[in-house]
C-alpha cells in the first residue's frame, strides 16, 4: 500500500498501528507493507500502479478519493455539512452506500479518515462574498469548490500546492483554502492575516484496497483486517479534530485574525451552493447520494 502521508505524521502512525495489529491478529497470515511520503508518486500514480497490480491499495487524502468512490464527493460539497455531528451521522448513514460506490469502481473501503473542514484564509479581510471576489483567489484542486466559484462568479488563479506559499509572498494569490492543520503544516500562516470562521466545505480521505488486493487476503481474515483498519481510522479522526482546534488557536497566536461568519454571508454562500448543486448532481455524484445526505442532516437540523 502507498500514501502521500509522511513518516511520523498522525496518518502514518495510524497506518503503522493498524499494520502491527493486523499482523498479530492474523498470526502473520496477512502482512502489510506501506510506502509513505509519496515514494510511489502522486495519488494518481498510485492509482495507476494499483490498476496494473503493482500495489494493492493505499491511503488517499486528495481528489483520488472521488476516483475511487465518486459519491464521497457528496460529503465534500460546499456548505453541505456544518459541524462534526453532521459529519459523523452522515458517514454512518451513508456507510453501505459509499461502500457500494467504491466496490463498483473495483475497491473495498477499509476506513474513512478525516482531512477536516476547509476555511478561507487571506491577506485581506474577507467578511462578505463581494470581498472574496475582490481578492486573488486560489483555484484549489477541488471539483466541487470549482463549481461553487463558477456559480458565484468568483475568478480564480491556478497554482500547485507547492506554489501557493511563494504566490502568497509575491501577492499573486491573496485567498487560499485548507483545513487548519494543513495550512499550518505548509507554513501558509506566515503570509496570512485573516481567516473566515465559516466552514466552507469538508474533506474526507480513506484507506482502500483494490478488489484484487482484497481477494488476496484469506477469507477468514478479511473482516478482521477491515475492522482493524476502520477502528484506527476512527481513532485518527479524533486526533485530526484535536489537531485542527490547536492549529486554529496557533493561527490566532501568530496574529491571523478570525472574521466571524455572519448569517447573511452564510445565506449568500448557501444560495450559490444551491446553484452549483444542479451542476454537480448526476455528474460528480449521484442524486441518490445527495438525497441520502440531506435526509440525514435534516434529522439534526430539524428542517
**Uncertain stretches:** none
Rounded to the nearest angstrom, the distance between the terminal CA atoms is 42 Å
What is the typical, i.e. mean, pLDDT? 95
Specify the overall morphology: globular
At CATH level 3, the topology is D-Maltodextrin-Binding Protein, domain 2
The portion of residues assigned to helices is 40-55%
Name of the top-level CATH class: Alpha Beta
H/E element order? EHHEHHHEHEHEHEHEHHEHH
Structural class: alpha/beta
CATH superfamily: Bacterial extracellular solute-binding protein, family 7
- The second-level CATH architecture is 3-Layer(aba) Sandwich
Let me know the number of strands: 8
Q: Rg, please?
A: 19 Å
Strand content: 15-25%
The domain count comes to: 1
Q: Which short descriptors sum up this protein?
A:
303 residues; alpha/beta; D-Maltodextrin-Binding Protein, domain 2; six-stranded mixed beta sheet; 50% helix
Amino acid at each position: 500500500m502507498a500514501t502521500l502521508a509522511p513518516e511520523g505524521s498522525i496518518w502514518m502512525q495510524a497506518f503503522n498501528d493498524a499494520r502491527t495489529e493486523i499482523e498479530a491478529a492474523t498470526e502473520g497470515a496477512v502482512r502489510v507493507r506501506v510506502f509513505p511520503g509519496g515514494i510511489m508518486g502522486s495519488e494518481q500514480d498510485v492509482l495507476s500502479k494499483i490498476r496494473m497490480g503493482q500495489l494493492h491499495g493505499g491511503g488517499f487524502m486528495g481528489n483520488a478519493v472521488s476516483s475511487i468512490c465518486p459519491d464521497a464527493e457528496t460529503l465534500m460539497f460546499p456548505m453541505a455539512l456544518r459541524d462534526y455531528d453532521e459529519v459523523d451521522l452522515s458517514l454512518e448513514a451513508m456507510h453501505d452506500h459509499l461502500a457500494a460506490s467504491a466496490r463498483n469502481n473495483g475497491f473495498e473501503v477499509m476506513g474513512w479518515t478525516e482531512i477536516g473542514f476547509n476555511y478561507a484564509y487571506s491577506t485581506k479581510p474577507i467578511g462578505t462574498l463581494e470581498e472574496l471576489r475582490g481578492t486573488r483567489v486560489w483555484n484549489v484542486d477541488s471539483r466541487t469548490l470549482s463549481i461553487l466559484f463558477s456559480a458565484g462568479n468568483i475568478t480564480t488563479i491556478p497554482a500547485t500546492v507547492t506554489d501557493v506559499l511563494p504566490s502568497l509572498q509575491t501577492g499573486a494569490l491573496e485567498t487560499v483554502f485548507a483545513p487548519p492543520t494543513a495550512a499550518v503544516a505548509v507554513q501558509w500562516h506566515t503570509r496570512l492575516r485573516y481567516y473566515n470562521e465559516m466552514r466552507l466545505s469538508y474533506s474526507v480521505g480513506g484507506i482502500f484496497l483494490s478488489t484484487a488486493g482484497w481477494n488476496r487476503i484469506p477469507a477468514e481474515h478479511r473482516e478482521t483486517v477491515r475492522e482493524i483498519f476502520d477502528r484506527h481510522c476512527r481513532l485518527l479522526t479524533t486526533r485530526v479534530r484535536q489537531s485542527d482546534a490547536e492549529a486554529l488557536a496557533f493561527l490566532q497566536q501568530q496574529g491571523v485574525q478570525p472574521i466571524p461568519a455572519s448569517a447573511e454571508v452564510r445565506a449568500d454562500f448557501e444560495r450559490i451552493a444551491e446553484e452549483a448543486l444542479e451542476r454537480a448532481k448526476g455528474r460528480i455524484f449521484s442524486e441518490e447520494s445527495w438525497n441520502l445526505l440531506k435526509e440525514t442532516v435534516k434529522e439534526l437540523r430539524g428542517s
